[in-house]
Amino acid sequence: MKQQWSIARNVAIFLSVACLSTPARADDWPQWLGPNRDGIWRETGIVAKFPQGGPKVRWRTPIGEGYSGPAVANGKVYITDRVLADGVQNPKSAFDRKTRVAGVERTLCLNEADGKILWMQSYDCTYQIMYASGPRTTPVVADGKVYTLGAMGHLYCYDAKSSRGTPSASSALRCRRMASGYSLAAATRPCGCGTPTPAR
User: Fold this and answer.
1) Number of compact structural domains in the chain
2) 46: CB partners within 8 A, 6+ apart
3) How far is CA 165 from the centre of its chain?
4) Cα–Cα nearest to 187, from 137, 125, 120, 140
5) Looking at the DSSP assignment, which residues form a beta bridge with residue 156?
6) What is the C-alpha end-to-end distance of the chain, expressed in Å?
């Protein structure tokens, strides 16, 4: 539970900083390290120092565990997380990569203005890795699609606007789970997902 609030707090702080910069809409941050993957904010009017008591929190939305950062694009916040199956706990040692841990990985789309969950997609994902707390990668938003890569190699491509409702009504395009010994080639398919090819 502490991890859930930590992630929600980080998302809230990120959005607070973006909103404090100017009354106008801030630049999108659609992937890890921003639009150019260089970690540089190009907006003007960014605050140099937080006000006394910290930035105003606009909203909070509890989510599951994970190491993913948020991607912000077109008035939406995209993030991935993990929810353990009922009665399941992560191994006591973070270095345990032998224990199988049942749960689901999720992709969430939140409204940037109020944190309301607009849509959520999930899939079963049993972990057998160290640090089994959730996805590690930040979603990438490009050309109306949201790309996610789960901790066990599940690569998904979602329509950024229409992926609403339950997984059975999903417009997600599942690209093959990358098996050990495979790498991802250049994007060549319409969904934007690459074709797994044997590693050399």
Assistant:
1) 1
2) 17, 20, 21
3) 18
4) 140
5) 148, 174
6) 42
Domain boundaries, position 88: 2-198
Encoded tokens for 161: 């606007």
| Helix, coil or strand: residue 131 | coil
Residues of the chain with pLDDT under 70: 1-26, 33, 163-200
Cβ count within 10 A of residue 190: 8
How buried is residue 181: exposed, middle or buried, by Cβ count under 10 Å (0-12/13-18/19+)? Answer: exposed
The partner residues of 123 in beta bridges, in order of sequence, read 105
Taking only the tens place, the pLDDT of each residue in 44-84 is 777 888 889 988 898 999 999 999 999 999 999 999 999 99
The domain spanning residue 160 has which CATH number? 2.40.10.480
Q: CA-to-CA distance for 138 and 151, rounded, in angstroms?
A: 11
Integer Rg of the chain from CA: 18
Q: Which regions of 11-69 does DSSP assign to beta strands (E)?
A: none
Residue 97 has a pLDDT of: 86
